[in-house]
């Protein structure tokens, strides 16, 4: 059965390229902000481009923060992309301003320590062994466009609970490129702009729904 994936329509950019890539990867894609459709779909994608604070303001204006939390509380899958990953953390620091995030994970999004920003282009991503998201694409490069990232993982998950699978990349310093943590999965890179590797990653996620 084809999985139904909702792309959250809240005024972010890169929405149509994400919809196209998800369809290519095998999903039935719905672009909407309708709460009932968002909750009932097999998967929810939260895209995001631009500033952390701007994305958070738009999410809150659509009450999407509550919708995301409701889905995750019910263990219904959510995929965050780029700033859609960043807002899953506790807070973001941009241009000297601190903005509260969705708080699904502890941690702070901050400016990368690199002489060359933004980080635009292809970087190799190194996932943990056993990653379902990166199955058969463990050695691939993915497309990034960002200046801010999370540089440490602070969620301490101990047995019998299953630890998160992490993936890392480097630009001036090591940073989180992706997280798989139960129903919540997120990538700092843009899978929809990452060619065949990105489509395979989206396909892996869709198959997990």
Give a topology summary:
Blueprint: E1 4-8, H1 15-24, E2 28-32, H2 35-40, E3 43-46, H3 52-61, H4 64-73, E4 78-81, H5 83-86, E5 89-94, E6 97-100, E7 105-111, E8 119-124, E9 126-127, E10 141-146, E11 148-149, E12 165-171, E13 173-181, E14 184-187, H6 195-207
Parallel strand pairs: 1-2, 1-3, 3-4, 4-14, 5-7
Antiparallel strand pairs: 5-6, 7-11, 8-10, 9-12, 12-13, 13-14
Q: How would you describe what is shown here?
A:
This protein is of the alpha/beta class. It has one domain (4-207): Class I glutamine amidotransferase (GATase) domain (Rossmann fold). 25% of the residues lie in helices and 34% in strands. It has six helices and 14 strands. The strands form three sheets. Strands 2-1-3-4-14-13-12-9 form an eight-stranded mixed sheet, with helices on both faces. A four-stranded mixed sheet has the order 6-5-7-11, covered by helices on one side. A hairpin with a 2-residue loop joins β13 and β14. The longest helix is centred in the C-terminal third of the chain and has 13 residues, at 195-207. The radius of gyration is 16 Å and the shape is globular.
């Amino acid at each position: 059965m084809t999985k139904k994936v909702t792309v959250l329509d809240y005024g972010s950019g890169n929405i149509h390229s994400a919809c196209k890539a998800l369809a290519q990867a095998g999903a039935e894609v719905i672009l909407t902000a309708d709460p009932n459709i968002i909750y009932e779909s097999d998967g929810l994608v939260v895209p995001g481009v631009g500033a952390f604070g701007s994305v958070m303001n738009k999410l809150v204006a659509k009450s999407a923060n509550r919708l995301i939390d409701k889905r995750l509380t019910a263990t219904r899958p959510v995929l965050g992309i780029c700033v859609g990953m960043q807002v899953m953390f506790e807070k973001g620091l941009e241009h000297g301003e601190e903005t509260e995030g969705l708080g699904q994970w502890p941690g702070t999004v901050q400016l990368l320590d690199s002489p060359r920003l933004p980080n635009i282009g292809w970087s190799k991503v190194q996932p943990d062994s056993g990653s379902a998201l990166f199955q058969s694409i463990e050695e691939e490069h993915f497309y990034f466009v960002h200046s801010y990232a999370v540089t440490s993982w602070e969620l301490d998950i101990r047995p019998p609970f299953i630890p998160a699978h992490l993936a890392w990349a480097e630009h001036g310093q090591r940073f989180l490129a992706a997280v798989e943590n139960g129903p919540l999965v997120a990538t700092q890179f843009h899978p929809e702009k990452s060619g065949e590797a990105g489509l395979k990653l989206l396909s892996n996620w869709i198959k997990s729904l």
